[in-house]
């Protein structure tokens, strides 16, 4: 079962905020009145401890007052600024490893309302070579991360493991054969839209030769681990409204629960 954390966070923020407001408007004045009546009966000011006890809000009100600002801050940061994600698969190797924790810029492509995902402010459009997080079109409750290869209107051709954009081959330079003595894959430097990055190509793995025309409002994405990635070559295009944000940095690597987090892996994502 996939939990919609954004929905849970919005509901928790809304509930605690309403409870805090209810206490502020309806119950706090009653507590204040109770203190004043007790002071009249006592003929003067009550001891400080007694005042505190009479003015003390109920447990639910006190909890809501404490939790609402924290939840609201997390909601704002996560919805409009940056959101952390963990890399669960090797489809973006060698750029991103399993266990990398990344930061995704939520405002780079425009501001969207949480849960509804309605865009309220346009800022920039995705560029070729960007690494993006998006909702998987065939199951939007799951987030995917891939690299933008084709923009709206582009004709993308994949032939002999080389990307062609509108008939132009995208530069590839061989960097290494891995492992050196008995190579099974190639480490290749690829340039997409002026963005240099490394990709893996498996030796002897059959390739899918095909051509696609990217429709308006959609993007063609691929994983950097070209022969081990479930991407636009197999399930189609990413609608603009399913974009979550641009992956900008790795802030931690933590591959196993019993191991220590590795902060030496901090780096920008290219």
TrEMBL record:
Under which name does UniProt file this protein?
Signal peptidase I
| EC number of the protein | 3.4.21.89
InterPro entries for this protein: LexA/Signal_pep-like_sf, Pept_S26A_signal_pept_1, Pept_S26A_signal_pept_1_CS, Pept_S26A_signal_pept_1_Lys-AS, Pept_S26A_signal_pept_1_Ser-AS, Peptidase_S26
One biological process term in Gene Ontology: signal peptide processing
Sorted keywords for this record are: Hydrolase, Membrane, Protease, Transmembrane, Transmembrane helix
Catalytic reaction equation(s): Cleavage of hydrophobic, N-terminal signal or leader sequences from secreted and periplasmic proteins
Q: Which family does it belong to?
A: Belongs to the peptidase S26 family.
A single Gene Ontology molecular function, please? signal peptidase activity
Domain of life assignment: Bacteria
Cellular component GO terms held in the UniProt record: membrane
Active-site residues (renumbered): 91, 146
Q: Which PROSITE patterns match?
A: SPASE_I_1, SPASE_I_2, SPASE_I_3
Q: Peptidase S26 domain location, by residue?
A: 62-251
The record's subcellular location field reads: Membrane
Q: List the transmembrane segments.
A: 6-27
Query: Which top EC class is named for this enzyme in its record?
Result: hydrolase
Q: Which organism is it from?
A: Marinobacterium lacunae
Per UniProt, what is the membrane topology? Answer: Multi-pass membrane protein
